[in-house]
Every structure is written in structure tokens, then in C-alpha cells.
Design brief:
By secondary structure, this protein is of the alpha/beta class. The protein contains ten helices and eight strands. α2 links the parallel β2 and β3. GO terms for molecular function: 3-beta-hydroxysteroid 3-dehydrogenase (NADP+) activity.
Length: 320
């Protein structure tokens, strides 16, 4: 059971700890970065647009003048960018946490592919994060850290088993998004099983933000600037939504709560909103056969085999 005295507005002192957050220039990634910085952490904010990264860093520093912030260009849809960013991080000190947050929230109407030839939603939300986490295992192991994958309540809204993860047939924006989130959740749990089997001192958890929307989030120049109409419409949904600040709470708790452990699933207490607490992922996202299939697909598609896990392959008891 999760303790009930956790205060997401007063985090433990994170001085001397180092975290990397993907997709830091807006939304959940920005507010997670801000909350970590307020607690004294050194935050590596990442994004694919240098101007937006600079704006986000200034916005954090405006609220936390002494924040330890490093910015790093990273596009999770581009495997070359993932490898380059990871190489930069590996050249520094240990890493205590990795928040795999970046993602396509509004998929294109028609199927699009990346420069690497992968479907853009799956590449950005799942494939790139599999690659990044694998490339960053050495500094995470050095810091005895943890990784948090960002799931979604959408995974319970239909049976979208990603047998065709890149949707080469039957593409639709909704299916692309849901399948990518089934994948990130399943990969997060599979990562924890494999890391445990190999006795690697890294925990892998999954967290979701509930239904967090911009119109219920405070305005920040260059970060969150909803129109009056968006504010009006989003506030009509107040009983079933929350701000993106609050949406970041389960992600951050999964990342820093000393009592959190690998394999857990964190989210708002009322599913769509509320204080961060332990929950349960959808049945589909918990299936180990789906997770193992997705892991093998990601390994083949990226050409990246996670270090430390090779010796544990004969012991993969979960693969029935």
C-alpha cells in the first residue's frame, strides 16, 4: 500500500540527484521538470526544438532562480538523436532517474513515417524511449536509479493489441495513440522483469497523468497559453479533468518516492484526477506475452540490445 501522507507540493530534498526528462518544453514534462527543480534536483530538460528548450529553461529559472538546469537536444522519433543525446549524458556523472515522457498526443490524420522509416507515433512514444533507456542503463546503474514510462488511461478503452505496432495496415490516429501507450506500459513492466532477472540495480515503473488538460493549467508564457475558448471548454469538464501540474504528480512520485518500487503503476486517485497513488494498469498492458513480443520487436527495430541483460537471456522464465 502507498503511504497516505505523501505531499506532492513538498517533495523530499533532491539535492545532489540528477534526473533526465524527455519532452520538457511543455505539458507534463515541463511541470515535472519544474517540480524536480523546486526540490533541488539537477534536471536535464530535453526537447527537439532549441528555442523551446531555451524558453522552458527560462520559465523554470523564473520560478526557481537557483535551479540546476541543463538542456539537451533530443528527438525520440530519431534514433540518431537518441544515440547522440545518450552519449552526452553517459559522459557525465551518474543518473538517478529517467522520465520517459515525450510523446505525440495528437497523431497525424494519415500514417506518417520518420527518417528511420518507423511510424511516427510508435517511434516517438515507444521505440525511441526503449532505445534511450537502453543507452542510459550504465549511468542509471551507477546512480542506482529508476526509469518511469508514461502510460495512459486510454489503454483500457478497447482491445488494441499491437500485433502490428507500426500500423502498416488499418492506421487511425486513435489506434496509433492507444497502441503506443499499450506499448510504453508493457515495455515498462517488461523492463523491470528483465532488470530484476539480471540483478541490475535499476527499477522500472509506469505512471499516468489521468486526464490532464491545458485549459485547467495555469498560464506560463511560451509554455502554456490556452485561448479563452479553450479555458471555457476545458473548465466545463472540471469534474473529470485536472491541470497538467497535477497530472505530473504521479510521474514525479513514481520517480522520487523512496518507497516506490519497480513494477508499480502510479496514477491519480480518482483515475482521471486526484492525488498520486498506486493503481493497476489495463489487463492488456499487463500481459507478459504482449510485452515480450514488443520487446523483441523494439530490439530488432532499433538494433539496440540493453547492456547487462545478455547473460540473463537463458533465464527469461516469463517467456512461455
Amino acid at each position: 500500500m502507498a503511504r497516505d501522507d505523501w505531499d506532492p507540493t513538498t517533495l523530499p530534498d533532491l539535492s545532489g540527484r540528477r534526473y533526465l526528462v524527455t519532452g520538457s518544453t511543455a505539458g507534463l514534462g515541463f511541470f515535472a521538470s519544474l517540480q524536480l527543480a523546486e526540490a533541488g534536483a539537477h534536471v536535464i530538460m530535453t526537447g527537439r526544438n532549441p528555442n523551446k528548450l531555451a524558453t522552458a529553461r527560462v520559465a523554470v529559472r523564473r520560478q526557481v532562480p537557483d535551479a540546476e538546469i541543463t538542456t539537451l537536444l533530443l528527438d525520440t522519433s530519431n534514433l540518431g538523436s537518441v544515440r547522440a543525446a545518450a552519449a552526452t549524458v553517459r559522459g557525465r556523472a551518474g543518473l538517478h532517474g529517467l522520465l520517459l515522457n515525450a510523446g505525440v498526443v495528437h497523431p497525424p490524420r494519415h500514417r506518417e513515417t520518420t527518417a528511420d522509416g518507423h511510424e511516427v507515433v510508435f517511434a516517438t512514444n515507444a521505440l525511441g524511449h526503449y532505445a534511450l533507456a537502453g543507452e542510459l542503463l550504465p549511468p542509471l546503474a551507477a546512480g542506482r536509479g529508476r526509469m518511469v514510462w508514461v502510460g495512459s488511461i486510454s489503454t483500457a478503452m478497447g482491445n488494441y493489441d499491437p500485433v502490428d505496432p507500426e500500423l502498416e495496415t488499418n492506421y487511425s490516429p486513435w489506434r496509433a495513440y492507444v497502441q503506443s501507450k499499450v506499448a510504453t506500459t508493457a515495455l515498462g513492466f517488461e523492463a523491470d522483469r528483465r532488470l530484476r532477472a539480471a540483478n541490475v540495480p535499476i527499477a522500472s515503473l509506469v505512471a499516468h497523468p489521468g486526464y490532464a488538460i491545458s485549459g485547467r493549467t495555469r498560464g506560463i508564457l511560451g509554455i502554456n497559453e490556452p485561448t479563452r475558448m479553450t479555458r471555457f471548454v476545458d473548465n466545463l469538464q472540471a469534474p473529470i479533468t485536472q491541470s497538467k501540474e497535477r497530472g505530473a504528480w504521479p510521474l514525479v512520485r513514481a520517480l522520487v518516492d523512496p518507497e516506490a518500487i519497480g513494477g508499480q503503476f502510479w496514477g491519480p486517485s480518482r483515475l482521471v484526477a486526484g492525488a498520486p497513488t498506486l493503481g493497476q494498469a489495463s489487463t492488456l498492458a499487463r500481459r507478459e506475452d504482449i510485452a515480450a513480443r514488443l520487446w523483441d520487436y523494439c530490439e530488432h527495430a532499433t538494433g539496440i540490445t540493453w547492456p547487462y541483460l545478455k547473460a540473463s537471456r537463458p533465464r527469461r522464465l516469463w517467456r512461455r
